[in-house]
Recover the amino acids of this structure.
């Protein structure tokens, strides 16, 4: 409804003289920014408003985000960027309630198809900065295009820097303090404290169980020494489709690995470690001599075969490695 | 191993005491000799030379120390690095290494053995590795017994994980730091066991030595408090721990603050707060413990507990407030990136760019530790079995260091000692069981006296372990000789293989000085590639003493050490902006670079180029890091994206982007490179790419020197043009004149214009 009113206002403005028109046009949009029903300070544009705001002559700078927020378009980056853009707009509005020569607007594809077509844009989001016109020469009217960096941890700050560099307006970002996060953190701590107080009688035996801590420590040690942190940091694939249709479990190359590969190695380490523990702790406690002999031989064999297997995988990774153990020779 | 055989051969331990002691000393000496000998591959193959990068600075500083004395060294302001800023070297280094080799140098002179400081520096690391083996022996002997200690010493002596940082010539802080680490830990265990302030004080003394030697001292600063904290949580607080920790912390912290580089960090940064917090906690616990003994009232205890909790909460909140308000510095980036593993890549590219800060893939663990890596969990498990206070230390150490080693390749170094200790405990337990010559007799219904005695003993030890898994049943022993022989034989094979593996790894992977490269000729003979020294000596002999050399920071220490010329940036990466400046100069076009180079009064620019030889560690491969670091400071002027083709590839051939082709680094690397090959055949052997026939043109610099294999290329930055033209105009004029060679002089100008067009085209 408000939009219609504004359209009417815009239309009525056309009758005013050019200079006045320029000033009034700016004032209208500044008011629009102040009263925006979207995020504070950001003007929700459509085809007509866009044409209006960008038509020369301009004595103000305009930053327009061309986006496609609708689920249908599946634009992840658009949706990720929108809160940051709103933050930029509201920060500017907070510092400059009268817009002070910088207008910030959003044009969504659903209401701005014609503009997208006219400007030949096939991707979103696109961000453009329309500098003020002073002479009206064609080159001056060329908008500047912003390059999105998907890896930027704080896109609003990067954009603010870019605007500050490309216009006379210094934009500062005011990130609102995240009270929700703080409260949920405090509540979480209190909750955990209460829960542990209540559950203490039941948890205490487990907490002081030596076996539990031994298991946890060993799992941690095995995970870390089998290269789990590498998987976590480098985000390696679990397995990779091989060339002739098969699946390759082992990555080629010495400083490379797959997820499954590290799990195999961790299991091999675990079994090897367990066999040595069995040999030194369990075996001498078997009372029957015949049983003991068989068990010792069995564990010894497990040790040999798995170590040999480990050596053969390692040789696969490092072709020039000269050593191997008998049963499995890679 | 040998001593345990002995121990079983001689029945009465008392009568063989002296024999066994002699044997232990002999074995330890042999281990020390072996650990020194296995680190000498590089000296024998190449020569007595300092390796890699950082050692060159340490070597230079040591030379300065023995030349100018200790106090000058302490106040050393180095104006020949980080030009024009300079570096307060005396206050920004860990002096322990240099002071150690300086002391050895003075001692040898005193006994009339004037040894060159270079040889002391080269051989310091192998020498200290012998001491590390000894410290590991002492440490492990505290954990189990001396036979496990000897095994651990032998493992430590030859484990590649430690050799990688301590071969002859690798004159780096780690060379002495691992010895100090193990010895400090030994003293700490001793102090905690005996509750003695003397051992605590000694521990603090060696902690001080460690702080003076290596930034990795923070590992000790956090591990000992963690050990104490875990013990308190386990309800094992005792007066012994109180005395040991308090004396260590108070003395050690005060001592560590005497190192200028450390200064007030122990009370101002988050890395050290754990130690301080535990110091406070242990005082509280001691106070409560004391009062509990005095006042047995139950209500009073409840009140007391409330007070303790309150104080703990208040001090924690206080700590957080101080951190938030900035009185206590938050975790520094290098340490923070250990926890938040994605942090460095986004925020501090200079840390992420270093190859030894990359995460560790599993083959590296196996490569550096071989079969120790799977004995390691077994050893940790054995620690859980007895779980004395010192075993808790091993467990804490094992978990923490295996995490750190997984996150950063470099920290494999701190993992190696605990792996050796734990694995030695496991192997030694197995050998103890299977090398027992006497076999138990088969259990009959009515057991003979000996067996019942054994059973009783075992039952007693079983109750000690609190019914721990796999140790509930009484210990009997191994019946059959065959099973003993089989297990001992297979473990002997593994041990022999470990020795072979270590020797092979040391010889093949860790003994290259990286200053001198070796390759094999087709006939199998060794060919030495000595381009680095060729270039550095060229600089030393052919440039004025005050010439300034710009290069990427990797080569700063080497230029300072070998060429003795002033550098802009070096491996002490204290000023990110200055490094980014050099990065920008390398990544920008000549016009921009020339401005930067002139402003920094640079005379020569040095680049490493491996394209001809296939040397992959060259500057083009490092180039993206230069771009990234420069982009971090000048995001609008240098952009990483512009170095990638539209398909997102990093190319140096025809498809290379214009920004890439115009960058100073590209031009310096490929200038005249195509002329080495027949037309159309120019290839870069590192990146396997065909190069354009028309190589890059340079205007503001000129080639000064290129080494035999093109690895190092040195360019001279041109002085301002004599006629006040810019260098592009001057070059155009020159080439134009050549073009218009036979024409009269007045045609020169027109020719110049023509030439300019040609150049720019």
């Amino acid at each position: 409804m408000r939009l219609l009113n504004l359209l009417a206002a815009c239309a009525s403005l056309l009758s005013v003289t050019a200079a006045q028109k320029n000033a009034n046009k700016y004032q209208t949009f500044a008011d629009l920014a102040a009263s925006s029903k979207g995020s504070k300070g950001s003007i929700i544009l459509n085809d007509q408003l866009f044409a209006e705001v960008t038509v020369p002559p301009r004595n103000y700078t305009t930053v327009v985000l061309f986006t496609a927020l609708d689920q249908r378009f599946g634009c992840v980056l658009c949706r990720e960027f929108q809160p940051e853009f709103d933050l930029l707009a509201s920060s500017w509005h907070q510092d400059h309630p009268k817009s002070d020569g910088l207008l910030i607007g959003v044009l969504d594809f659903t209401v701005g198809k014609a503009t997208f077509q006219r400007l030949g844009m096939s991707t979103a989001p696109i961000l453009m900065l329309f500098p003020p016109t002073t002479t009206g020469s064609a080159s001056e009217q060329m908008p500047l295009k912003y390059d999105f960096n998907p890896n930027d941890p704080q896109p609003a700050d990067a954009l603010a820097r870019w605007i500050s560099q490309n216009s006379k307006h210094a934009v500062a970002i005011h990130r609102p303090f995240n009270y929700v996060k703080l409260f949920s953190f405090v509540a979480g701590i209190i909750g955990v404290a209460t829960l542990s107080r209540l559950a203490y009688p039941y948890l205490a035996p487990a907490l002081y169980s030596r076996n539990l801590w031994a298991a946890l420590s060993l799992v941690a040690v095995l995970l870390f020494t089998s290269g789990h942190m590498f998987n976590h940091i480098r985000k390696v694939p679990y397995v990779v489709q091989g060339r002739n249709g098969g699946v390759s479990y082992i990555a080629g190359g010495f400083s490379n690995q797959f997820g499954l590969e590290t799990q195999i190695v961790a299991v091999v380490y675990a079994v090897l470690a367990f066999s040595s523990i069995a040999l030194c702790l369990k075996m001498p406690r078997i009372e029957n001599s015949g049983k003991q002999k068989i068990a010792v031989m069995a564990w010894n064999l497990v040790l040999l075969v798995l170590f040999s297997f480990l050596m053969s995988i390692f040789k696969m990774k490092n072709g020039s490695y000269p050593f191997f153990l008998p049963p499995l020779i890679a | 191993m040998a001593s345990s055989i002995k121990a079983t051969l001689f029945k009465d331990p008392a009568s063989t005491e002296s024999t066994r002691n002699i044997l232990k000393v002999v074995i330890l000496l042999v281990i020390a000799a072996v650990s020194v000998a296995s680190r000498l591959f590089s000296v024998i193959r190449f020569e007595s030379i300092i390796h890699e990068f950082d050692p060159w600075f340490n070597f230079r500083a040591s030379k300065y120390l023995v030349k100018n004395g200790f106090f000058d060294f302490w106040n050393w302001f180095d104006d020949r690095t980080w030009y024009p800023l300079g570096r307060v070297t005396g206050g920004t280094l860990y002096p322990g290494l240099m002071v150690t080799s300086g002391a050895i140098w003075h001692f040898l002179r005193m006994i009339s053995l004037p040894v060159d400081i270079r040889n002391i520096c080269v051989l310091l690391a192998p020498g200290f590795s012998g001491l590390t083996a000894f410290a590991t022996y002492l440490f492990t002997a505290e954990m189990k017994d001396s036979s496990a200690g000897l095994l651990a010493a032998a493992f430590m002596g030859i484990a590649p994980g430690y050799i990688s940082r301590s071969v002859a010539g690798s004159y780096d802080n780690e060379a002495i730091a691992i010895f100090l680490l193990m010895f400090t830990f030994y003293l700490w265990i001793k102090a905690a066991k005996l509750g003695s302030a003397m051992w605590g004080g000694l521990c603090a003394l060696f902690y001080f030595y460690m702080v003076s030697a290596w930034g990795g001292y923070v590992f000790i600063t956090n591990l000992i408090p963690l050990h104490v904290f875990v013990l308190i949580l386990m309800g094992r607080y005792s007066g012994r721990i109180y005395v040991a920790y308090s004396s260590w912390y108070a003395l050690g912290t005060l001592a560590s603050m005497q190192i200028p580089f450390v200064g007030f960090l122990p009370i101002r940064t988050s890395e050290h707060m754990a130690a301080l917090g535990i110091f406070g906690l242990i005082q509280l616990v001691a106070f409560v413990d004391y009062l509990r003994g005095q006042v047995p009232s139950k209500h009073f205890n409840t009140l007391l507990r409330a007070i303790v909790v309150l104080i703990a909460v208040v001090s924690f909140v206080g700590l957080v407030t101080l951190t938030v308000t900035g009185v206590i510095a938050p975790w520094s980036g290098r340490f923070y990136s250990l926890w938040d593993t994605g942090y460095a890549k986004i925020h501090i590219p200079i840390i992420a760019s270093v190859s030894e800060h990359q995460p560790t893939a599993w083959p590296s663990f196996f490569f550096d530790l071989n079969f120790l890596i799977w004995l390691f969990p077994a050893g940790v498990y054995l620690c859980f079995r007895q779980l004395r206070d010192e075993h808790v230390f091993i467990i804490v150490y094992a978990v923490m260091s295996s995490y750190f080693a997984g996150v950063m390749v470099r920290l494999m170094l701190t993992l190696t000692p605990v792996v050796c200790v734990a694995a030695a405990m496991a192997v030694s337990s197995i050998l103890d069981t299977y090398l027992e010559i006497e076999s138990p007799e088969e259990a009959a219904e009515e057991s003979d006296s000996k067996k019942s005695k054994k059973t009783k003993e075992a039952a007693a030890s079983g109750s000690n372990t609190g019914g721990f898994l796999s140790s509930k049943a009484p210990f009997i022993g191994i019946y059959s000789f065959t099973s003993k022989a089989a297990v001992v034989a297979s473990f002997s094979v593994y041990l022999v293989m470990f020795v072979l593996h270590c020797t092979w790894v040391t010889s093949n992977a860790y003994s290259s000085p990286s200053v001198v490269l070796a390759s094999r000729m087709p006939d199998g003979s060794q060919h030495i590639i000595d381009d680095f020294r060729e270039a550095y000596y060229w600089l030393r002999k052919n440039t004025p003493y005050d010439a300034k050399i710009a290069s990427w920071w990797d080569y700063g220490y080497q230029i300072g050490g070998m060429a003795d010329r002033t550098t802009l940036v070096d491996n002490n990466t204290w000023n990110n902006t200055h490094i980014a400046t050099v990065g920008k100069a390398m990544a920008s076009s000549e016009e921009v670079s020339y401005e930067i180079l002139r402003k920094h009064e640079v005379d020569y620019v040095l680049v490493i180029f491996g394209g001809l030889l296939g040397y992959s560690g060259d500057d083009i491969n490092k180039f993206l890091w230069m771009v990234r670091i420069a982009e971090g400071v000048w995001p609008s002027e240098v952009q990483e994206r512009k170095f990638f083709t539209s398909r997102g590839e990093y190319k140096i051939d025809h498809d290379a982007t214009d920004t890439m082709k115009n960058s100073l680094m590209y031009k310096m690397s490929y200038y005249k490179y195509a002329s080495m090959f027949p037309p159309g055949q120019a290839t870069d052997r590192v990146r396997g790419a065909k190069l354009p026939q028309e190589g890059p043109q340079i205007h503001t610099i000129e080639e000064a020197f290129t080494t035999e294999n093109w690895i190092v290329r040195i360019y001279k930055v041109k002085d301002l043009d004599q006629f006040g033209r810019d260098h592009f105009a001057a070059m155009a004029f020159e080439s134009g004149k050549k073009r218009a060679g036979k024409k009269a002089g007045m045609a020169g100008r027109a020719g110049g214009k023509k030439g300019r067009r040609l150049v720019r085209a």
